[in-house]
Amino acid sequence: MKQAQLNKQLAVLATGILTFSGVLIETAMNVTFPDLIQQFGISTKAVQWVTTIYLLMISIMVPLSNDLIKRFSIRKLFMSANLLFLIGVVLNAIASTFGLLLLGRLLQGIGTGIALPLMFHIILTYYPLEKRGTMIGVGTLTTAIAPAIGPTYGGFLSSVFTWHAIYLCLIPVLLCSLVIGLRGIPEISVALTSKLDVPGIIGIGCFFTGSLLFLNQLTQPIGWIGLAFAMIGFGLFFYRVKTTKHPLVRLDVMKQKSFRIFLFGFLVCQFLLLGISFVLPNYVQFVLGKTSFIAGLMMLPGALVGALLAPVAGKLFDRRGPKYPILLGLSIACIGWLSLALFMQMAQVSLLVLGHVVFMIGNGLCYSNMMTMGMNQLAKEAYSDGNTIYNTLQQFSGAIATTIVAVILGFFQTIPNTSIVQGTTSGSIVSVLTLSLLLLSSLIASSYYFLRRKK
């Protein structure tokens, strides 16, 4: 019994380390774009593919992993994800051409896209309901904190060494994850019960490819071609969901209102995390004149607070139920988030750090518990589909949030007769206030749910 419990913990730890590494470099590379443009002689639009191709592969692989989990053992999937990610990291550590850098990012996206849902699959399958809140809190710690730590990690290594060090330092971490996984994840055969939905894969691949192309080329004609491509892809995917016996993802879980409420809240938390990770560093550099390293460093206190609160919030969920941590967390997050809009008018780093810390306290209390509460609404046989929907939309919502705040900032920065400082200040405040509408909507929806539940 003790050995089985240890193996479960090692399995979550191994997949958690791998997932953390994948999400970490999602934002760690953002501070290196000026260096990449200069080194490879490429444009700003071209360098965006360092992030775009990574998010694209994750978005495609997460729903595909829903099928892979039914076909291959957890051990085989973990080894494949770790080795693909490791190969991609090694390629980027030695990359001397832009093409090799993109190839490495592609492989990392595939590895992360497998590891992310695999971690939550292990938690949902092998941990009882009364311990699930704590373990999902530990699991979501990786996806909630890593994006905030990424800019500090990338800024420090690229300023002291070169951007190659971002990947070089991950190699021993990934090897450690591989050793832990091989030690803790047993080989359990899986009975093949379904056929691979190839048209569904093509449809969802087209949908995400077209959507990301549209988001990255919003003002260009090719962006609208991407949107049409995305709509065709979604139509094919939805048709397969409705007509085939073994679709890539079953969307029946979306019929449950309670599941939708907490899925929405979870995605709002992700929206805010990625949105502020873009807004604050830009504000600090353009308005306050600080370096990229300082801009990334100021995100660290909030990230550490969130890291400490994630497992604590899960234990609170298990002991006190969902209402207290979710509603308290959303309320505190609203206070912190709106204070950021106020503090941006004062232009002081210390106040911005304070506002971010308060927001991360609230976010840390409710973020993972939103996923726990949503998944608890489902029957056991629907866990895999619910897990896939959560993790797929989580990645995609991050891309959307970044695009929204980038468009708002770009609009205000290019207003005639407006300085870059004035434009960035106005754009940052409007971005925060715009996303605050989503946060308030989530608070209202969650409050309404618990009120009706009480009655």
UniProtKB/TrEMBL annotation:
Keyword Disulfide bond: no
Stretches assigned to the Major facilitator superfamily (MFS) profile domain: 11-454
Membrane-crossing segments per the record: 49-69, 81-103, 109-127, 134-153, 165-184, 196-215, 221-241, 261-280, 292-312, 324-343, 349-367, 396-415, 427-451
Domain of life: Bacteria
PROSITE patterns: MFS (PS50850)
Membrane-related topology note: Multi-pass membrane protein
Main localization (coarse): membrane
Subcellular location(s) of the protein: Cell membrane
Coiled-coil residue spans: none
Keywords: Membrane, Transmembrane, Transmembrane helix, Transport
InterPro entries on file: MFS, MFS_dom, MFS_trans_sf
Molecular function per GO: transmembrane transporter activity
Pfam families from the UniProt entry: MFS_1 (PF07690)
One annotated Gene Ontology cellular component of this protein: plasma membrane
Entry-linked PANTHER family: MAJOR FACILITATOR SUPERFAMILY MULTIDRUG TRANSPORTER MFSC
Protein name: Transporter, major facilitator family protein
Organism annotation: Enterococcus italicus (strain DSM 15952 / CCUG 50447 / LMG 22039 / TP 1.5)
